Amino acid sequence: MEELHFVYINANGRIGVHSIQSISYSENHIQGICKNTDRIKTFRKDRILKQYDSPEQAIQECASFLPENYSHLTKQSGPKKNTFDVCFTGFKKADKERLVDKANEQGLTVRTSVTQSLQMLCCGYNAGPSKVSAARMKGTIIIDETGFIHFLETGEIPDE
Q1: How many domains does the chain have?
Q2: Confidence band for 76, pLDDT divided at 50, 70 and 90
Q3: Residue range of the domain that includes 120
Q4: Plot region of 16 (φ>0 → left; ψ -120 to 50 → alpha; else → beta)
C-alpha cells in the first residue's frame, strides 16, 4: 500500500509532519488516511513543503522549515467583497428581466432565492408567500417595484 510522508504548512502557518496511506490525487489536493488518527485528511498540494521516504526523515527535518518563509502559502484572501443582494419574485418574465438589468447596472448582486445574505426582496403582484415569509424571518427588506426604483435612484428605502 502506498504511503506518503511529508512536511506540510496549514492555512494558519503551522508546520507539521504527516503520513498518509490509501492515497487519492486530484488536481490541487491529496487525500488519504492519516496514520496517526486513522481518519481521512485532505491536503493542498501547494502546501506540501517536502516529501520524504520515511516519517522519521520528515520529523528530523521538520524544524528546519520556518513559517515566515512560506507566508505566500498561508496568506488569507482579502476581506470578502461586500455586496448588496436583491431577489425579485412575483413578476412577469419581461418585468423581472428589466429589473434584473437595472440591478446589475447599479452593481447589485441578483439572487434567485432568499439567501442568508439577502438584503432586499422586491415583490411583484404575484409574489408567493413562501419567499416573502422566508425573507421576513431573516430580517430582509421587502419592497415593491416602485420602492425599488426609488432606492436605485436615491439610495433611500421608502417609508411607506
Answers
A1: 2
A2: low
A3: 85-154
A4: beta
